[in-house]
């Protein structure tokens, strides 16, 4: 099933790093996924996160407030 | 406590490099090695400790605590204290602001948090202990907390809700004591450790270059500027010194970790400590990039009032420290 991955962040360096990491993992592991970067603060607040970046996979908030490690992303996406 | 680092620095400069004691270069290099080692070590310890606290007490818990409990006036102090243990990233300031307001937390209390969080952070504390010792660090931390509490209280009394941007007002109108189903993450310390560790490494990587450059510049100045050099220009009696120092500090945000080591040398060479503390608080606490981000939720007028009140409180504490220290 195609995964929908959303990265919430207002455009700070941490959010960019997270996006790049997710893209890397998706490519390397050949995961069928759509990556959406959400920068609009009103949309971000719909997820009720207090700290960015936040990683949302299939509408589930998984990690927030920090840049996840590549290992974590792989684990989250391949489980 | 740090004698052993001094011994390493002495050994390296005087024994290994065979430089002569009393020489400018030798003294500067010795100071540089001693300071860098000591400060990096302290930074590491403090960032790690804060990381542990934060892992068990994340921002969501803070929000829920503040919006759930009636604190009878202590909420400003509590918000300020929470600000100390929460690492602050200016890019999170907007979601944080909205999240607090949405949870029904008063504007002034939110401000108290927003002021203290960047002002008293793990990097600043680590640098302060290393550069100025425990007493000055304690003064800085306590006054940072008071500053957040008092400014938050003043800002609340000014009824600033009307200066929020329209869509935030809407959020405010719909604000409820909303409680998210906050999932308590039951993780063991072993599970948390790699995450905390990764944060420590990221933060250190970000500040270390600035710290080293700052200490290097400080080391050079330390060796070449005569003792008491600044006393003639910036004595305690100079009434303009504190406000000027505060204003000068605002644009220097991005290099806070590099600027503190230089300020330490300036203090050693005769700049009054109150003036220096005001300068450092303004460097760390009033940042232009943060102001730009806040434009999404506040009108320029409100940002001006916010910075103005905090700036005035900083100037006031500068004068106060010059009087009592």
UniProtKB/TrEMBL annotation, chain A:
Taxonomic superkingdom: Bacteria
SUPFAM superfamilies named in the record: Thioredoxin-like
InterPro entries referenced in this protein's UniProt entry, alphabetically: Thioredoxin-like_fold, Thioredoxin-like_sf, THIRX-like_proc
Intrachain S-S bonds: 12-15
Pfam families found in the cross-reference section: Thioredoxin_3 (PF13192)
Swiss-Prot/TrEMBL keywords: Disulfide bond, Redox-active center
Keyword Disulfide bond: yes
Annotated signal sequence range: none
Active site per UniProt: 12, 15
Residue span(s) of domain Thioredoxin-like fold: 5-77
Cited PANTHER family: THIOREDOXIN (PTHR36450:SF1)
Name assigned to this protein: Redox-active disulfide protein 2
Automatic annotation (TrEMBL), chain B:
Topology in membrane: Multi-pass membrane protein
Localization of this protein: Cell membrane
Superkingdom classification of source: Bacteria
InterPro entries for this protein: DUF318, UPF0718_permease
CC terms in the record's Gene Ontology section: plasma membrane
Membrane spanning stretches: 39-57, 77-101, 107-131, 138-155, 207-225, 237-254, 266-288, 300-321
Keyword Transferase: no
Pfam short name (any one): ArsP_1
UniProt keyword list: Cell membrane, Membrane, Transmembrane, Transmembrane helix
Family assignment from sequence similarity: Belongs to the UPF0718 family.
Database matches in PANTHER family: PERMEASE RV2963-RELATED (PTHR42775:SF1)
Protein known as: Transporter
Organism: uncultured Aureispira sp
